Batch of 2 targets.
Target 1
Amino acid sequence: MKFAVVAFPGSNCEMDLVYAIEDVVKEQAELVPSTATDLSDYSAVLLPGGFSYGDYLRSGAIAQLAPIMSAVKRFAAAGKPVLGICNGFQILTEARLLPGSLQRNQQSKFICKLADLVVTNNQTMFTTDYQTQQTIQLPIAHGDGNYYCDPTTLAELRKNNQIIFTYQNNPNGSVADIAGISNRQGNVLGMMPHPERAVEAILGSTSGRELFSSLVNSVRKRGLIHE
Amino acid sequence: MYLAKIHVNYKRSILNPEAQAVQTALLRLGYQDVTSVQLGKYFELKLTGSQSKEQAAKEVDEICDRLLANVNMESYHYQLEELAVAE
């Protein structure tokens, strides 16, 4: 199974993702430049963390207009898995593939630490290898990670089980302790914590491994694989 | 030709820690009378294609909605000034 890892100018977690997939999950990963326009060779698309386009205007606001994003939208519309981590999550909200937005952390400082999360929905393509309500540990590293949506959107997210991860101790002021959400169909996931930085014990946590293994298993099971 | 002067600000319901930090700094400087600070973005765009003010306004609305503002958490307002073509 082949993953596309999209690299925007200013992305900085793309190699961590490639490493997590190739060396830990033992699948193929390829870097795809943001100027590319075709993703038909891949079974899953990953948007990495970083500071695409220097966070100019707003985090993710410029990246959502990069040529690759039209292909990402087609990929998502076809029901195939798209995962945005940190800046990737910000890009997905700016591209309106996910509702709401990420605003400045409540305490206006950059937070970099291991966070306790609760898996609130283990029925998605990204979470089947976790237990529901399981507590996991993933690193967070963001200045604009405070998830915001209006009350109507929050009610929709709750009704459709689109809240996938929540913080046990809200670090940034996010509405409803939200750390990760999916789209209505469940094939697009955005999350501020970094699963790719938690795949080996030496990194402090291995909680991220199940996310990638869930994705691989789900893609194979659903026959979405493109070899 | 029109000049659009555009202000983009967080909606009142949205927390703006940057503005709060500025207000705290002003208090430290002794400006006790400053009870509110708004902090946002300012853009000036020159539009050469618009034939009328209405057309320019339509284009600026579109530009704000599509890029300059995130309407989830920001609102915008602007003024349009007609410029001499040679400017």
Note: Chain A touches chain B through 19 residues (CB under 8 Å).
Target 2
Amino acid sequence: MHEWDFAATLADMDLLLLGLWNTIQVFVLALAFGVPLGLGLALGRMSRTPVLSQLCSFVIEFFRTTPPLVQLFWFFFALPILISVQMTPFVASVLTFSIQSSAFFAEIFRGGINSIDKGQWEAAKAIGMTRKASLRRIILPQAVKRMIPAFAERSIELLKTTTLISTVSYADLMFQANELASKTFRPLEVYTVVAVMYFFLILVFSQITILLEYRLAKSGEGTMR
Amino acid sequence: MNHNWNFASVFAYWEVLAVGLWGTLVLFVICTGLGLSGGLIMGMLRYSKSRWVNYPARLYVEVFRNTPVLVQIIWFFFALPVLTGIEVTPFLAAILGITLNTIAFSAEVFRGGIQSIEREQWEAGKAIGMSYGQTMRRVILPQALKRMLPPLTSRGIEVFKMSTLASVVAYPETLQQAKLIASYEYNPIEAYTVVALIFFVVLLPMVQLTYVLERRFGKSDA
């Protein structure tokens, strides 16, 4: 039977915490770029210009149907050759996950906007608002409320997907764990600690979501799905 | 932007890619089969009224839903052998990680589907003398399955994409084989583009299928 010994892992906890910090950085940046980009893609897909609509649909479907790991490899190994720029693991990660999550966010935005009653558009038009103004002032504020649970769920997915960046040697939590495991020869303890760290990070996040959903349900705002 | 695209250098290794595709397919079939059937059982355990059944099932679901699959695969590959003394192959680690993850996610789909069936159906089943198991099998599940079809198809798509993670432990699936080609021929652009296109072509019809299923079964009981 294996003798558990967490001493070596805990002694190098600062390495893991640094990895956690790097993970959170990529996560936050990918969210910050991914959400506006997702809104843009959603509006593009719903646009009445066929070319724009088809282009946005293609981008969304392409990034939804290809594995994130393949995308990451493409952006890290292939893109730099194609446009001859230096690509760091950090830039490649943020780029990949911004675009990848934007495709999923776009579908959430589209679902949310479509879920708003047609009468709202007509009412806005009746008091003389343009399409743009009614979208910004009437439709989106209502739609965003309904989208929050789906958003949160997608963000959790994103957080879990960031572990992939360890494969291009970005020093995220997973990468630091690999380093520490080979340094201490204690893979069982290291990976168990890391799994627990991810578990609590995501648990906190999902509990906030549940709380939010509960409050929205209470305030009479139906949740999507 | 003056790159000379040379896809011939990828297709010259089509046998290598074919091995990868086969590997992906094997992972997909095993993990979806075991994952969904395990998910059905886990979903029913989650639905149980007994705390002794319900709580452990819930713990399982939360643990596997709240940790990244990559961590799970790596844990099974590097940590499990230390714990049990059994040698874990890349194949086994990938199967374990992806299947256990799929069980957890599909369990929630099954539970939601079962819960969505009205109470009266249970009562009606009881009224004509059916046991719990019979009502579940003959009355509840057939109705619930229809509603669960769209989310379950999405799960299948997720599993197909997740199979690329097996490359991290060097299991020869599509991405791993492309990596190999890229390192022989120094053609990462073409190799990874081909892989992306393969996944796109295979999964796009499946995604379209979920849209159709959602429209047909999503809301009404057609």
Note: The mean pLDDT of chain A is 90.
